[in-house]
Every structure is written in structure tokens, then in C-alpha cells.
Amino acid sequence: MMGAFKYGRGQVSISIWNDWQTDKSLWSIFKAIWTPIRNVNILVFSPVDLHIYDTLGNHVGLNYTTGEIDYQIPNVYYSGPDTEPQEISILDAIDNKYKIILVGTECGPYQIKIEGNISGSLVHSEIITGTTCIGDLHFFEIISPIDGPFNLTVNSDDNPLSQ
Fold first, then answer.
1. How many Å is the Cα radius of gyration of the chain?
2. Which of 76, 99, 102, 113 has the fewest CB atoms inside 10 Å of its own CB, making it the most exposed?
3. d(CA 83, CA 43)
4. Which region, left, alpha or beta, applies to residue 150 given φ > 0 means left and ψ of -120 to 50 means alpha?
């Protein structure tokens, strides 16, 4: 027996086995398709460099040792350090905690905007402002539960965050 259903713009066909009720891989396909996509967008307007770390210590942002951009977190877009605003988008955020570090590149005010989306609908938006100077570090933490409702919690503190 062959089943088909529409998803997005295309059509997906799945072969349904006689014992489909016990086929765990079939359930995982359906679950993956109907799980809402959770995106996190971070924008900074200011004289700072934007960095993000996941719970495994993977990094996206400018690597000051090599001068290159690190892209160690999967499904992340980074606009680069020479853009205004700098933007990092976590597409289909699968981790539940991210650490953001802003590094001052000049003296002046900064603004960070953090947004959470579920399948394209904005569910959280927060703007935080501050001042920075060359070499200053500013720490933020994003907590996004994987199970249950998407509730983006942003913690801001100019003290290092625990891993």
C-alpha cells in the first residue's frame, strides 16, 4: 500500500508496510514533518562583534586567532563582522541553550534584538540596550525549551555565564 501527503510545495510518498504500527522509523518521519520549526534571530546594532556558542562549546563568529569566521553550529546563518547590523539566525534551533557574547570594538551604545519564531510566526521579541568600549564583554543567554511551548527566555548579565 502506498500513501502520499502534501508537505510544503512538494509531495512526499511513503511506503506503508503491513506492520506500519510497529515501524518506529515511519513514526519518526511523521514526527519530524509535523514538529514546528523553531528559529532564533539575533541582531546587533553597534560597535561590537557578535558571537554565539551552543551547549557543546561550538562557536559562530569571528575567530580572533585565525581572522576567519567560525561556523561550528549547524543550521546557522551569520552575516559577518563587517555588516550593520550583524545578524545570526539559528534555523530549526535544536539546542535549548545558547550563549551570546558581544565584544566591544569601539566605544558607544549598542542594541541587541532577539526574536523567537515558530514556523514563521513571531512568538518573542526583545530589545536590550547598553554601552560598550573596546574589549568590553557583554554576556547573554537564550533558553528555548525543546519540548512544550516555545518560550524564549533571555538572561543578560555582564558576568561570565556558567557552561
1. 19
2. 113
3. 11
4. beta
C-alpha cell at 6: 502534501
**pTM: predicted TM-score of the whole model, two decimal places:** 0.71
Instruction: Name the residue with cell 561556523.
Output: 71
- The residues that bridge with 104 in the sheet, in sequence order, are 48
Torsion from C-alpha of 70, 101, 116, 43, nearest 10 degrees? -80
Domain segments of the chain as ranges: 2-34, 38-157
| pLDDT for residue 89 is more than 70 | yes
- Residue 45's pLDDT is 93
CATH architecture assigned to 38-157: Sandwich (2.60)
CA separation for the pair 87, 99 (Å, rounded): 15
d(CA 131, CA 142): 20
The 10 Å Cβ neighbour count of residue 71 is 13
100 within 8 A of 86, measured Cβ to Cβ: no
